[in-house]
């Protein structure tokens, strides 16, 4: 019937428009709050393109079908790198890194330490670390597993940040100029190259209209990472960046020598937030970034008591010429 065809056409064009907005939001580096939020949900908007393609094809709107096909291809092109992976230089992992946001220090310390213990984590980066959380984590056994630490907690709120390590650390540094703390250390792992571990937590761009500050802090993180990379040693950062792969500001971090562990390992989107709802997490805002090393595996893990899931990555630290399979 004619009305069915018109309804399918209307649905199809609306869905294609939504997908096109998702593709556009992926590419824009805007600090306009609505566009930053749209970029967060860009993959969900892009999926609408498939609905539009089917609807327009069923309605026999061939021009619309062609437009929808172009939008679907453009959308797929933005997401494919997350699933293809780039581990050609990787061998067996020697290092396991975990990133955890513990919700104002309220995350279950026993559960966090159980993850560290079962996965044999070597470096743990923690966001939203409070003064009160430190003794609870110690009582749960974290200091026994990871005896070296550099912590910059806060009495309350989400600004505290810390790094625990299985191996000795030096060059403990607090990087100034951030609303929420950013720290780094140099880790000395026996029989491996020393590397720099970083923990960061840029200010979230919402719910308050603070997208400009968030974008500026992402730029500051990028500058610090580039300075650290200039030392010629591997750098590994665990962070709640309050940014997804579809934010241009995030992709700028991995545009000059850094890789996202999830993308490099082909793990796809590791959705970590929000983790305290009845529905599964929808946004991948917690990340592990590497340079001078290769992330072989990456996955999201549960952190009871927190509104985030954690991220764990297995990393090959060896020099590129030492990787298995290389000449």
UniProtKB/TrEMBL annotation:
Annotated keywords: Endonuclease, Exonuclease, Hydrolase, Membrane, Nuclease, Transmembrane, Transmembrane helix
Domain (Endonuclease/exonuclease/phosphatase): residue spans on this chain: 98-308
Transmembrane parts of this sequence: 35-56, 63-84
KW rRNA processing (keyword) present: no
GO molecular function, one term: exonuclease activity
Keyword check for Thylakoid: no
SUPFAM superfamilies cross-referenced by the UniProt entry: DNase I-like (SSF56219)
Protein name: Uncharacterized conserved protein YafD, endonuclease/exonuclease/phosphatase (EEP) superfamily
